[in-house]
From TrEMBL:
It is a multi-pass membrane protein. The keyword Coiled coil does not apply. CDD domains: MFS_NepI_like. InterPro entries: MFS, MFS_dom, MFS_Efflux_Transporters, MFS_trans_sf. PROSITE patterns: MFS. Keywords: Cell membrane, Membrane, Transmembrane, Transmembrane helix. The chain crosses the membrane at residues 43-62, 69-88, 94-115, 127-147, 153-175, 195-221, 227-251, 263-282, 288-311, 323-346, 352-370. This is MFS transporter. It comes from Actinomadura napierensis. It is found in: Cell membrane. Residues 3-373 form the Major facilitator superfamily (MFS) profile domain. It holds the Pfam family MFS_1.
Length: 384
């Protein structure tokens, strides 16, 4: 468990490093002397760094011992967050964010498989859920705390705190996480061939569409809330979202081995309901908090669901499927930052929730249609 919690902390660092700008966007834009849509590209370039490098770096480092690779990735986060914290130059900040994204590409392609190797087959879903718990913890505690720190002490303090945590984690990993060998050259999967494996393509499409829908609004949530008169409540809204995400991943971990399909369909419907609530004008703050609750319940368990579905569908090519999922996840993050910025400038903040609903329609169709391979009613090896 100590080793799995170290992995969860690594997930926490990658998640918080990725999403923290969303909570401090106005402060970052003012400090760097750029508009909020330009500051939002700090999320985009991070995702682009991961999307462009996850597959080639996963292939290039497939022979590395796993612990060495994990330590390298965490050291990359420490360096990138330090530069982000001290930079006053917009271009240098984007370069640092890109490097952080490269480190994320290494980490994300590694972490789910690492957790699965620590557990027997019948507990692998729960092991992945423990490791992925870093995501809702980052959202429920990290982003609101970072948002508060950004408003009270300056956004740079939050990034320096991330550096300190990464340095602590390097020692934790060294002391507790077991090492595993990499793959021999003849065992390394071929990425393109993995797309032909039944069930992999639908999982990857759902990843792309769902994460795109989420990021279009999440990257600009502070700006959206400011538009509707709740700019001072960004940290509280994110806290509700994060706590609901924590509940979601706990529930997902408890039921994923038997109900992966049902949980994935429910995730799409819950996030869709949240977007609809946000899209309807209201003079009360209550619907916004309700939407944050629904959104968190739908989103929190999604990384575990998609990574488990990809690994199950991939079979012997699970590592390749994971690397492709990580790549598409971050392509969606990058595209979401760009598309959200365009919508914000062209149509205003109120267009963001409706774009989420539009993207979730094909997502829902893909999940429902992949009833045999991809999102089956029963996971392989759990029947009976």
């Amino acid at each position: 468990m100590a080793a799995l919690l170290a992995l969860a902390t690594a997930v926490f660092i990658t998640s918080l490093t990725e999403t923290l700008p969303a909570g401090v966007l106005p402060e970052m834009s003012g400090s760097l002397h750029v508009g909020e849509s330009a500051a939002g590209q700090a999320v985009t370039v991070y995702a682009a760094g991961t999307a462009l490098t996850a597959i080639p770096l996963t292939a290039a480092t497939a022979g590395w011992r796993r612990k060495r690779l994990l330590l390298t990735a965490m050291a990359g986060f420490a360096a990138a967050n330090t530069v982000t914290a001290v930079s006053s130059d917009y271009a240098l900040t984007l370069i640092a964010r890109f490097v952080a994204g490269v480190a994320a590409g290494l980490a994300w392609a590694l972490l789910a498989g690492y957790a699965r190797r620590m557990a027997p087959a019948h507990l692998q879903g729960k092991a992945v859920a423990v490791a992925m718990a870093g995501i809702p913890v980052a959202l429920s505690l990290g982003v609101p705390a970072g948002t508060f720190a950004g408003q009270a002490l300056g956004w740079r303090v939050a990034f320096l705190a991330m550096t300190g945590l990464a340095l602590v984690l390097l020692g934790w990993i060294t002391a507790t996480v077991p090492d595993y060998p990499g793959q021999r050259s003849q065992e390394r999967p071929r990425m393109l061939r993995t797309l032909a494996v039944p069930g992999v393509a639908p999982v990857l499409f759902v990843t792309l569409a769902f994460v795109l829908a989420h990021t279009v609004i999440y990257a600009y949530i502070a700006t959206f809330l400011d538009h509707i008169g709740m700019g001072g409540s960004t940290d509280l809204v994110l806290l509700v979202f994060g706590i609901a995400s924590l509940v979601s991943i706990w529930f997902t971990g408890a039921h994923i081995d038997r109900r992966l399909r049902t949980l994935t369909i429910s995730s799409v419907l819950l996030v869709g309901a949240a977007a609809a609530v946000l899209g309807i004008p209201s003079h009360s703050d209550v619907p916004v908090y309700l939407a944050a609750l629904l959104w968190g319940l739908g989103w929190g368990g999604l990384p575990t669901l998609l990574q488990t579905a990809a690994a199950d569908a991939g079979g012997d090519s699970a590592d390749a499927a994971q690397a492709m999922l990580v790549t598409l996840w971050n392509v969606a993050m990058a595209a979401g930052g760009i598309i959200g910025g365009v919508l914000l400038d062209a149509l205003g903040a109120t267009s963001l929730p409706w774009s989420v609903l539009l993207l979730l329609v094909p997502t829902f169709i893909a999940v429902v249609g992949a009833r045999v391979r991809g999102f089956p009613a029963e996971r392989p090896g759990t029947a009976g």
